[in-house]
From TrEMBL:
The active site is at E263. Its EC number is 1.2.1.3. Belongs to the aldehyde dehydrogenase family. Homotetramer. Residues 31-492 form the Aldehyde dehydrogenase domain. It comes from the Bacteria. Keywords: NAD, Oxidoreductase. Pfam families: Aldedh. This is aldehyde dehydrogenase (NAD(+)). SUPFAM superfamilies: ALDH-like.
Amino acid sequence: FGISEALEALGIKETNEGTLTGCDSFSSSGSVLESVSPVDGKLIGRVKTTTNEDYEKVMQAATSAFKTWRMVPAPQRGEMVRQFGDKLREKKEALGKLVSYEMGKSYQEGLGEVQEMIDICDFAVGLSRQLHGLTMHSERPGHRMYEQYHPLGVVGIISAFNFPVAVWSWNTALAWVCGDVCVWKPSEKTPLCGIACQNIIAKVLKENNLPEGISCLINGDYKVGEFMTKDTRIPLISATGSTRMGKIVAQEVAGRLGKSLLELGGNNAIIVTPDADIKMTVIGAVFGAVGTAGQRCTSTRRLIIHDSIYDKVKNAVVDAYRQLRIGNPLDENNHVGPLIDTDAVKMYQQALEKVVEEGGKIIVEGGVLSGEGYESGCYVKPAIAEGKPEFKIVQHETFAPILYLLKYSGGVENAIDIQNGVAQGLSSAIMTNNLREAERFLSHAGSDCGIANVNIGTSGAEIGGAFGGEKETGGGRESGSDAWKVYMRRQTNTINYTTELPLAQGIKFDL
Ligand code: UN1
């Protein structure tokens, strides 16, 4: 089962013009985007980008589909999502392979990403019968008060290359059961993953006689994203990516008083206390730092280790790095695949130079790999550097497999200060068997992140919880728990079933 079989199973075909299309309803006529695999440097396909005119057609399809979709009862919308989840089960290997080949993460992680899609579909199906509001007691006699949630409209989704399919599904599966329709701009670095997903959902919509505008795809770089951020027909923009991008999107959307759901950078740390289980720490830290070649927003970037066990932990982690095999991510013997492109390689190299400039010490040498199997120029060695919490580079999120070791002394509160002492606030973890330390870390005086784990690494969250973070991570929450509420508008209703019209607050107004 190779790449060409996977592309075929996903309905990705070359047209006469040598470009790839994938969607029945939306044709793009803009400049051509090339998808080059970081795995072997080969061109996988070309995709035409969305022009302003194309975008207008997409928005017409979306706004008219919304009128149909919002009238479909929520449990029936859930039934459509259930069928989508079934199709994903059928296509899991093909889509997992494409994710791995187009983005560069290991095949296992590619499959994991599709599994997250399946999981969120299951979650959304259940949710489709649980879009609950509350009832309240009115202060006026013979009055009833309650609140209900209504669909919002067109939801714009801007996603990043590192989770080219799962992040879309977290948004879209919830938005669909909520009665919204979605317009998705996948990363210009992974456009084929977008087309593959669109093909799968388009089939489900067709089989159910539903308009394809319920799920729309647009392609291109940030300029295409701007069509959506500026568009007053889109009440909610969900954007995943860098903090730099998020600040631009947030301001643009806020300027028209739209809502944005932001999922931005992380600078995630694991605190390792004297009571930590070292074996578990090593697995959690190494997977967190090198999984997806350090390109998860939840990747472990900092290890904050107590000085009494510093050398022990350092040696154990360094030893584990010696076992790492770097190479083609489709070969399941390898742990680490390539970075997304050569620009990412440059940023990795610059970060390693900076940590040395600032006085840090490299203890596991990095470097770019060359030669057979590494022709794409995107394969780098996971590196470890010792540094200080306040180093500029340690404060910065570099999307690459670089782990910084930081030392703390005294009580766990000192480690928590270091952990919180960055601009980002996505994921955090503590390794300890000491109940007091763990509870302190989870308390209001503890981690300031959206995710705080005990005896688990920073990455690999389950879909059932709300996913997102504080501070420069943007404050948004996607996926499980009550994250669905952001995809709906809340309405408070008060009904008077008497023949009197008493005013609230006891105000007298006699005519
Ligand atoms: C991301 O990197 O944008 O928690 C999402 C995790 C994954 C999702 C990461 N479930 O690592």
